[in-house]
């Protein structure tokens, strides 16, 4: 399983499509603020949520599951992610997710919070509190392990974020 996690592309559909093509993931998760018409999104298997800057009618929350790993996807503005991850974590736990993907802050995050792996891929166009734009790729690396690697839009690894994480609960 290889999942591209991306957020806050803010109208740069060409960059989004190029990254989606280069990563060649099994699935794409876009955590909102794509800020384009929906038909301008990559034509690949995707889970897309509406961000606070989107006008397209997309769900505010969604879920996707593969190989026993359940992803909770939201933009994060309704979960106050700029001040605390606790509301996001609780909502993800309520949905039975092991991974919570979110955006909104434009700050790349990858950390375990209780039983939930929190991933904010950052922004591919307008990074904040980080020196470069980023996106993330999650890959299954073991029975319960996943590897999360962050990249800049040129496809170079961003070593300051990511790692290998053991997902609690279900066997993957």
Automatic annotation (TrEMBL):
Annotated ranges, domain Calcineurin-like phosphoesterase: 1-139
Entries under InterPro entries matching the protein: Calcineurin-like_PHP_lpxH, Metallo-depent_PP-like, MPP_YfcE, Phosphodiesterase_MJ0936/Vps29
Organism name: Paludifilum halophilum
PANTHER family named among the record's database cross-references: VACUOLAR SORTING PROTEIN VPS29
Entry EC no(s): 3.1.4.-
GO MF, any single term: metal ion binding
Endpoints of the signal sequence: none
Protein family membership: Belongs to the metallophosphoesterase superfamily. YfcE family.
Taxonomic superkingdom: Bacteria
Entries under Pfam families matching the protein: Metallophos_2
Class of the enzyme per the UniProt entry, highest EC level: hydrolase
Keyword flag Protein transport: no
Protein name: Phosphoesterase
């Amino acid at each position: 399983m290889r999942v591209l996690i991306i957020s806050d592309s803010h109208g740069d559909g060409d960059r989004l499509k190029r990254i989606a093509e280069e990563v060649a993931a099994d699935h794409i998760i876009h955590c909102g603020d794509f800020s384009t018409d929906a038909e301008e999104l990559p034509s690949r298997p995707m889970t897309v949520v509406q961000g606070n800057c989107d006008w397209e009618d997309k769900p505010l929350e969604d879920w996707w599951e593969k190989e026993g790993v359940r992803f909770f996807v939201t933009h994060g503005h309704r979960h106050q992610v700029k001040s605390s991850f606790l509301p996001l974590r609780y909502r993800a736990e309520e949905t039975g997710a092991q991974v919570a993907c979110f955006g909104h802050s434009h700050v790349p995050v990858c950390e375990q919070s209780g039983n939930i792996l929190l991933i904010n891929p950052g922004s591919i166009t307008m990074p904040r509190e980080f020196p470069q734009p980023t996106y993330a790729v999650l890959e299954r690396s073991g029975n319960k392990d996943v590897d999360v690697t962050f990249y800049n839009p040129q496809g170079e690894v961003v070593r300051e974020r990511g790692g290998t994480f053991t997902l609690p609960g279900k066997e993957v």
